Amino acid sequence: MSSSQKSFHIAVPMDCPRLPPFSVAESAFLDPSQSGNVADLNLPPLVLPAVYHDPLGKLNRIDQSNLDSVMEFIREDLDLKELCDIHKHLWLAGLPQCARPLHYQLLLSRNIIVTEKSALHLTWMEDRIFLKPLPDYLMDHSIWETILCRDENYKLFGEANGLMLSYLWLVASRSDFKIAHDCGLLSPVITWERWTAFSKVVAANIDHEHLTNISPRYIYGELRLGRLNWIYRLCSGKRSAKTFIRGYKYNYTRYSTFIERNFAWFLTAIIYITLVLTAMQVGLGTSELRESAAFNRASYGFTIFAILAPLILGLLVGVVLAVLVCFNAVHALTQRKKARTKYVHSFGGTTLVYNH
Description:
About 45% of the residues lie in helices and about 5% in strands.
């Protein structure tokens, strides 16, 4: 450990009910064939990011010599509040079972998308599954002793245990391990032999059967992102104008993409209506159906429907797009106003002129 990290070592109380799932000598960064005094082992220094983004998009600096600064980063990095707030509805988005290993995700033709947001870990949509790389600090014993095991409500402890457990699900074979390395999900310095020794110890110390001391989010493995969006839109506890528009995760950067994904059924409906009208026209050409009063009434009603339905659906699409445009415009203007207030020195009425 570097000198800047020695401040992390704080004595753990004897009555601490939470313990790290591995010892210093069982770190994933160590060769399991090594033996001797742990103090003599060449431990690699813990590498934390220099900065991170908070939920508001603000850039924050991490001071590795300050325990509070490191704790704030880890608290933000492992945060699962968005999912815990709707936990009682998660059965609608996934099953209470283990996530499938990485090689099986590829068998399902899913692309692995790396995300640094814990609340998106193991969520999927269409042919994509979002996975958070296993942070190096979760394989550092001192972080568990000084931060994760000492959090007052032990929320961090449960979130850390859950993320560790998810990697026991995802990386169970050598092929899974290779995929994890290729996708940047595990540190490149960890070998297969080190990972098997480390995961064996973690599996023995984490209650993966009853999930005690593990965040309740990890009762469920993979969660369907589209359903999470609808839970956020309709759940009374989270419902607001913003969540109704954006849902759990806003997936669109262009209005054309929004239309393609949400109104593709519109074209299918038009094709079906066209087929039905064609069939009715052929039916009216036969003597049996031409003289049927019931069929004539049905043809009349469906013809009126076929005229009005595309107009109504088109109007609906226009209203939805208008709402989105207004919402995004209001959001942009609000952010502009905040920026002008915060960076008054840059918006002091001075016109910036660039010479080309």
